[in-house]
């Protein structure tokens, strides 16, 4: 009986394994062939029992069915099937696959996912684009599906990648002049197969004009004086060149075409930009002959001017530049003297179109041009104009020897001139900054003398350094030439807690050979040092005065500085100049102990201080009963803890300390000190 039961169990298990229903294959890709046939690709299901019989492929033209059996694949390892006659080139069709197991009456798996062939629709709105739309392979998308990739066929049989997307639409920009273009969509699967759509296309034309190039500026070439245009390349990849337009007779007239998308410069060799303002614009032209709209027009700057030799000036005027996207931010006036490098004369607001250039050098030739600069840094240059200067005779030299601060804090200026050339006179000018403005101080008529002196009393030499120069006034009453510029020395001083005074000064300026040395003089509490405090090199501008040896003075210090000229002056001088005088007070500092021990380390109670007025000092010590224990007016005398020669008992003692601070302020401190035994 037990054997019979065991046999039945064995039989049941064997039959159950033999009749196991297999999973359907995983249908992953549908590839529509050029003739409308469809190749299906799937992933083979597991068959551990070896009961596979066939794959059955079902087909419908509607997702809802009905579905018809269109193929049977009896090879287990085969994972593709081509449905001939599917007609998927003109419509989207649907497939699923089931697995049939070999058993009495057969066992069938559930259907695989139903996939739809991708049908792409290529519209043609006749605007130079191809809007494409298509259906999904499966809704929702298979987890293993990748992005959609779009390809176009041009020329025939050559497929080119157009782009990729995750959506069901794509707009391709046409850059082919006029031809048939087909499109298809592909979607790769993680398993390695690809779903390919049917092909759709139309005859498309490139009707989109290239992007408008950006005309940066129109300038006048500095050599040829022709108008020269500079622009940025069109961003359209099919740009073939650029058409140059000039505004002639009230009409934008094409005057030339330059080829190459990378060409960004053009010079009009028939230009008259040195005598008139000219206006230009450009347009891009693509490979299909389609042109972009015109850029905004740009107009060159026309520079003119006039020389007034007796006014010693050149008046410049120019037309405004037009065309910058951000407008003109400012104008720069550039000048070159005697064919030298151009330098900036001044920068003017965009509303200004005239200026006066003066300070002309005799026998020099000056050339000018104007630069207009936009708010975003683009520039345009004008034509250039030149003037040659022939002025009244001027001396061979005029030289300021010294500008020195005297003891009254006035400034004495000495100068020398070439007396062999007669002029109207010499004007002494002063400024508080290197570049001016300059104020006239004194006027000396020509009298045949070569040396002059002037004392400038309207100054604050202890607060400000000053600049001096001389102007030669010629027979026109003009400033014909200038001397060297002399700058006085401004000395400043600051006290610091680290027992130093810091001295700072500016360089003396005006000597051709420069400064050799600076001598520093010091006065302490009204007593001048007999020798210079120190001598420093002419290239230095500071000195820290160490006061550690002067801490017992009252801390009143004054300084002056003398500069000594280096050898090599072309006029043969070795001069000296003085700075202003400066005074300062070191802050008194007092340190008072709060305890002392006559038998210990700190045996005497004595305040310690620096820069104290010793003459006003007093210290009185009292016991707790108010009895005076000790008193002194000697800053260097302290209390040794005795009273009438006998040791005072330990305890707390009161004291009163008095002294006079700078400015006459009386300082008084009442406190206590502990006597320890």
The computed structural class is mainly beta
CATH class of the largest domain: Mainly Beta
Radius of gyration: 51 Å
Cα-to-Cα separation, first versus last residue = 120 Å
Q: Which stretches are low in confidence, meaning pLDDT under 50 for 5 or more residues running?
A: 1-18
Q: CATH topology of the largest domain, which one? A: Immunoglobulin-like
Number of helices: 1
Shape: flat
Topology record:
Elements: H1 2-18, E1 26-32, E2 38-43, E3 52-60, E4 68-73, E5 80-83, E6 94-101, E7 107-108, E8 115-116, E9 120-122, E10 129-134, E11 145-153, E12 159-165, E13 169-173, E14 178-189, E15 194-196, E16 200-205, E17 214-220, E18 227-232, E19 239-248, E20 251-259, E21 265-267, E22 279-286, E23 298-299, E24 303-308, E25 313-318, E26 328-337, E27 343-349, E28 354-358, E29 365-374, E30 379-381, E31 385-388, E32 398-405, E33 411-417, E34 425-431, E35 439-445, E36 451-456, E37 467-473, E38 479-482, E39 486-487, E40 491-496, E41 500-505, E42 515-524, E43 527-528, E44 534-537, E45 542-546, E46 556-565, E47 576-578, E48 582-585, E49 589-591, E50 595-596, E51 608-610, E52 618-622, E53 628-632, E54 642-643, E55 646-647, E56 651-660, E57 666-675
Parallel strand pairs: 50-57
Antiparallel strand pairs: 1-2, 2-5, 3-4, 3-6, 6-7, 6-8, 9-10, 10-13, 11-12, 11-14, 14-15, 14-16, 17-18, 18-21, 19-20, 19-22, 22-23, 24-25, 25-28, 26-27, 26-29, 29-30, 29-31, 32-33, 33-36, 34-35, 34-37, 37-38, 37-39, 40-41, 41-45, 42-43, 42-44, 42-46, 46-47, 46-48, 49-51, 52-53, 52-56, 54-55, ...
Describe the structure in brief:
By secondary structure, the protein is mostly beta strands. It folds into seven domains: 19-116, Immunoglobulins (Immunoglobulin-like), CATH 2.60.40; 121-205, Immunoglobulins (Immunoglobulin-like); 214-299, Immunoglobulin-like, CATH 2.60.40; 303-388, Immunoglobulins (Immunoglobulin-like); 398-487, Immunoglobulin-like, CATH 2.60.40.10; 491-585, Immunoglobulins (Immunoglobulin-like, Sandwich); 589-675, Immunoglobulin-like (Sandwich), CATH 2.60.40. The strands form 15 sheets. Strands 42, 43, 44, 46, 47 and 48 form a six-stranded antiparallel sheet that branches. Strands 3, 4, 6, 7 and 8 form a five-stranded antiparallel sheet that branches.
